[in-house]
Amino acid sequence: MTGILGHPGPSAAECSAIHKRWIAERNRRTEDPGYREEWYYEQCGSCRFWLPLSGELGSDYGACANQASPFDGRVRFEHDGCEAFQEAGAWSTPEDHDAHRRWMMYLRTLDSMDEDGLTLLRAALAEEPDREMALAVILRALEVVGGSERQEWIELARPGEDREHAEARVRDLDILAGGPTGVPDEWSNWTQRRIAATSSDLAMLDLLAQAGRTRSIRRMAAERRQAMGHRPGTGNNR
Questions:
Q1: Pfam family of this protein, just one (predicted)?
Q2: Does pTM top 0.70 for this prediction?
Q3: CA-to-CA distance for 146 and 171, rounded, in angstroms?
Q4: CA-CA 20 to 30 A from 193: which of 85, 182, 184, 232?
C-alpha cells in the first residue's frame, strides 16, 4: 500500500477514512460558487513544490514544500491550491516514478549550478520525452542563469509555443530586473504574481492591489501590502 517493501501501510478502509479527513481540509473547493477561474490553472498538483505521496493516497495527495505557503510541510489534496503557487509545467503523480526521478535530478543539477552538470543537463533536456517537464526546467533555468547564457536554454525549448513561452519569460525577468515601471496591464500575469508575492515596494503593492489583472493577484498584493505595513521599520509608506 505504501510502495515500500516490508511496510504494509494503511488498509483500504483506513485509506478511505484518511481521504475523508483530508478532503475536508481543502483550502479551495472547485464546487464552491465563488471558485475563481484562474484557480483551475493553479492547483497543487501542477505546483513545482508539490511532492506526491506514494501508494494509493499518492493518487490524490502530496506534501507542500513551499516555505512561502501557509501549508508548507502539510499534506494537501492535488486539486487544492494557495496564493504561493508556482507553476511546474507538468502534473506530478506517483505513477510516473521515472519522470519524477528525472524531475528531481534535473532540479538538483540546476540548483548546484555546476558548469559540467549544467552542460549534461542541457544535453538531457534535448532528449527529454516529456516536453512539458523540459519546458518547466528551462523556465526555472532562465531565472538563475546569467543573461548571456539564456539564449542556449531558450533554444532547448520546442519551436513554436514552448519557445515563445521561454522568450516571454526572459522578457518578464528583464522587467523584474530593471524595476517594473508603467502600469500593471503592461506586465504578464506571471510578472504581476511574482511582484505581488515578493515585492517590498509598498507603493507597487498598492498599485497591484488596485489594478492587478486578476482578483488573485489583487488579493495577493493587498495581503502582502498589509503584512509589510505591519513589519517593524516598514512604516506605512505610501
A1: DUF3027
A2: no
A3: 14
A4: 232
